[in-house]
Amino acid sequence: MAAEVMMMLKTVRESLISALKSPARLLSDGDRSVVEAEIHDAGRLTNAYSFMLFSACGIAALGLLQSSAPVIIGAMLISPLMGPIVSMGMALARVDPRRFRSAALTLAVGALLSVLASTIIVWASPLKDVTPEILARTRPTLLDLVVALLSGFVGAYLSINRKGGAIAGVAIATSLMPPLAVVGYGVATAAWDIAGGALLLFLTNVVAILVSVFGVARRYGFRSVERTGAAWETPALVAVMVALCVPLAASLQGIVVETRETNRARGAINQAFAEASPHITELKVQAQGDEPALVQAVVVTRKYIPSAETQVASALGRGTKVEIEQILTAKGAADLSNSALASRPASPPLAPNASPEQRLRAMLTTIGEVQAIERRGPGLVVTFVMNEPGELVDYLALEQAAQRFMPQTPLELIPPLAPLPPVPFAYGSTSLSPDAAASVDTIAWALKRWNAPAAKVEGGASPNPRGRRAADIRIAQARAAAVADRLGAQGIKDIALTTRVPETLSGMRRAT
To answer: CB–CB of 333/339 below 8 Å?
Structure first.
C-alpha cells in the first residue's frame, strides 16, 4: 500500500514538473516563424478587414439598441479586432517596432471606423433608448480586467498552437466590438459619460489581451533576436496595467458601495410607506466614499406620506440627503385637494444613466398605460391613460411630478379626452377665486395638450327671483370674459363667448 502511494506521489510530482517546464521546447524555430507570419498576417489592414469591421459594427449597434444578446454575440464572433491586438502582442514579445506600429495602426483605424459607423447608425435610428446591454458596458471594473486577461491567455495559446476550434469563445469573452459601438452611441446622443465608460472598457480589454499575448509568446520562446539596450517592454506593460487598475478598482468599489446602500435605501423607503402599498419605480443612490450622499426616488403610493424623506434620512443616517417624488394613484390623489404633488419641491438634475424615454416609461407604467412616447426637439410627448379613472387635475399633477424629477427634459403628458372641470364663482361675483383660477389653468393645459384650435366659454348666472334682468346677463358676460382673459394669458386665443341665464329660478332648476 505504501509503495502504491509513493508511486502516485512520484507521478504527480513528475506531472507538475512537466507542466511547469517552458513550452518553448515544443516549437522549433521554423514553427515559430510560421506562427509569427500567420499572426502578423491577421493584423494587416485589408479590404476584408474593413468589410468585416463594418458588418460587425452595424450588427453590434443594432443589437445594443434592441437589447438583443444573440445579435450582440453575433457581432463579437465576426469582429476582426482580435487580429491586430494579438499581432501587437507578438511584435512586442519580439521587440519588432515596425510590425507593432503596423498592427497598432490597423487597430486604431478599425476603432475609429467602428465608432464613426456606430455614431451614424444610432443617429439615423429611431431607437435611442439606453438599454441594459448599453449600460452593462459603461462601468468597467477589475473583474473585467481579469476576464480579459484570462481570455487573452486562451486566445494567445490557441493562436500560437494553431488551434482555432475555441477561438469563438475567446471572441465572445473579450467583447471588443460592443464597447466601441457604445462609444458611438454616446457620441451620437451626447452622453459623454456613457462614451467614456465604454472607451475605458475597450482599452482595458486591449491592454489585457496585449499583456496576455506578450506573456504567452515569451513562454513559447518568442524573443528579440537583436537587442541593443536594456529590456523595457515588461516594465512598460506592468506600468500600464497598474495605471489601468486604479480607475477600475475605484469603479468596482463604487459599484459595491452603491449596491449596498441602494438595498438599504430600498428597505428604508418600503418601511416609510409600509401602510401605503408603495411601488418604487426609480431609485438612485449617489455615494461619497463609503457613505450615501444623496438618495433620489420616485414612489407610486396610495397615500401621501409627508414625513417620508425625514424617516428615510433618519434610517440611513450619516447626513444623507433624501429626495422622494411621490406619485399618487388616481384613487389616492382624489383624497387630497389640488393634489399633494403640486407642493413638492423641484428635484435637481440627475446624472444620465438611462434615456429620458426609459425613465419616463418606468415611472408611468405602474399606474397606467403608456400608449406612445414621441421625441419633439429636446423634449418628450407621452400619451398616457391611468389604470383608474382620473380627472384632468390628476394628469396635470402627474406631468408636474415627472417634470420635477426630470428637469433636464421638457415633458408634455397628453391625457385622454375628458369633461372639462367647471369654473365656480361666488354669488354675484365676477372675479376668479384661487380655486376658479386653478380650474381655468387646468382647462388651458388640457386644451393645449389636445391641440384644440378653439374654445367656447359660456358664462352663467342665476336670475333674480322675479325673473331674468339685464344685470344678470352682464354678470354672466363678465364671468365669461374673466375666464376668456385667463385662457388668453395661457395661450388660448380663438375663444367664442356666450352666456346662459335662465328666465326664472325654476327654469334654472329644470336645466340643472
So the answer is: yes
Give the ranges where 94-163 is alpha helix by DSSP (H): 97-124, 132-135, 142-160
Q: Over 477-490, what HEC string results?
A: HHHHHHHHHHHHHC
Spell out the SS3 assignment of 298-337. Answer: EEEECCCCCCHHHHHHHHHCCCCEEEEEEEECHHHHCCCC
Taking the model in full, what pTM does it have?
Answer: 0.60
How far is it, in rounded angstroms, from Cα 365 to Cα 401?
Answer: 15
3-state DSSP call for residue 180? helix
Average of per-residue pLDDT across 378-400 = 84
Are 142 and 249 spatial neighbours (Cβ–Cβ below 8 Å)?
yes
Query: Which residue has cell 391625457?
Result: 415
How far is 434 from 439, CA to CA, in rounded Å?
A: 9
Angle at 123 between CA 121 and CA 129, to 5 degrees: 95
* pLDDT tens column, 103-149: 889 999 888 988 998 898 888 887 777 777 888 888 888 888 888 88
Type of residue found at 277: S
Q: How far apart are alpha carbons 273 and 298 in whole angstroms?
A: 12
Spatial distance between the Cα atoms of 32 and 404, rounded to a whole number of angstroms = 65
Give the relative orientation of helices 142-160 and 29-42 as an angle to the nearest 10 degrees: 120
pLDDT in tens, 42-79: 778 888 888 888 888 888 888 888 878 888 887 887 78
